[in-house]
Amino acid sequence: MTNDSLRDALSQVKYPGFSRDIISFGLVKSTEVANGIAAVKLQVQTRDPKIPQTIFQDCHQALDPIFGGSEKVKIEIDVQDPPGAPGAIAGSPESASIPGVKRIVAVGSGKGGVGKSTVSSNLAIALSKQGLKVGLCDCDLYGPSVPLMLGVPHHQPNADSEDRIIPIEAHGLKLMSMGFLLSDNSPVIVRGPLANRYTQQFLKQVAWGELDVLILDLPPGTGDIQLTIVQTVSLDGAVIVTTPQEVAMIDARKAVSMFAKVNVPILGLIENMSYFECNQGERYHLFGKGGAQKECDRLKVPLLGEIPLEAVIGERCDGGEPVALLSPSDSKISAAFHMSAQALLDHVSGK
After folding, report:
1. What is the CA radius of gyration of the chain?
2. pLDDT at residue 87 above 50?
């Protein structure tokens, strides 16, 4: 066995809870094969004792059959406290803030189709309407929808004198999205490392300027892009978007668990498609009732809002004029987004 084959075997060991392996994540500090003995040194920055324990077991599971038993595999793990930033996790460079940005809030979901981008866009507008300087970063590289929802689908960003991307501005927001870099029908065909690089550029190489809040619209799921984000910047917290039915709540719990593993606080849940209200004012809970509230009670986090199911929400997003642009006094739906934004602002300010 060679040192290269040892590292190949270690590349099959995943960081607990994620699809990325411990080699690409930078946990493995040294490897050596001498006299048939494999020696591996790792460094893990975490406050969760289960993480190094799981990595230790998984390394032995990958290496013991190759080297002929656990007595021929020596694994040392240096467990350290993560850096002070809330999002900093194992083996990563210290997560840092973005110059000029006061708060960074991620909006995520465990699955697609729950209206996460719709909620992100309307939340950003509602926060802006309160006089805040707000940015919205569309981190969904494979399905960017923010340009269309904000009415700027054909805009292309320029660069400043420092070779930073100048964000597109619309409805009082500063925007960045992969959709600005592609034509309408062009798919994004990139593998993990390149997707991670794009994500880092959107966060660190964009001239965001002075912002009170930067909203990160995450892709669905709990994969590499989410991990890259918490490695790259210090998040003030995450908002989880779900719908009432249990099948959505199952995946929402996975998203909550992912953020817990990387020390990002959950600011609350938003229940989208919560109910349909007919012309007579009666509410119909088409996908079930109270699912998000029960989950919030279990997690001891607030339910930030209940967004109704109305055709006008989709119609206005398709037209580039999100419903939160309407006066809350004239639109119950706009009022729901504005109340959610205020609840989020109250909670993140009181952290």
Report:
1. 22
2. no
**DSSP for residue 14:** B
Helix (H) or strand (E) holding 109: none
Between 3.30.565.10, 1.10.260.40, 3.30.300.130, 3.30.70.2740, what CATH number should domain 3-80 receive? 3.30.300.130
Best CA proximity match to 302, nearest among 238, 349, 350, 347: 347
Q: Which residue in 9, 15, 2, 97 sits closest to 48, CA to CA?
A: 15
Residue 72 DSSP class: G
Token output for 243 = 């719908």
- Pairing assessment for the beta strands 168-170 and 73-80 based on DSSP bridges: unpaired
Tokens for 253, please give them: 């719990």
Q: Which CATH fold would you assign to the domain 101-349?
A: Rossmann fold (3.40.50)
Selected residue with higher pLDDT from 192 and 227: 227
Q: Read off the pLDDT of residues 15-53 as tens digits, 9 standing for 90 and up.
A: 887 767 888 777 888 999 998 899 999 988 777 788 899
Residue 78 CA to residue 83 CA, distance in Å, equals: 15
Among all chains, which residue has been given the structure tokens 């660069």? 159
Q: Which residue shows structure tokens 């809870």?
A: 17
- List the structure tokens of 285: 């809970």
**pTM to 2 decimals?**
0.73
DSSP 81: P
**CA 21 vs CA 6, 64, 113, 234: distances in Å:** 14, 18, 28, 22
DSSP symbols for 115-165: -HHHHHHHHHHHHHHTT--EEEEE--SSS--HHHHTT-TT----B-TTSPB
Residue identified by tokens 């490392």 is 193
Q: Percentage of the chain surpassing pLDDT 70?
A: 91
Residue written as token pair 């094969």:
33
Residue 311: how many other CB atoms lie within 10 Å: 8
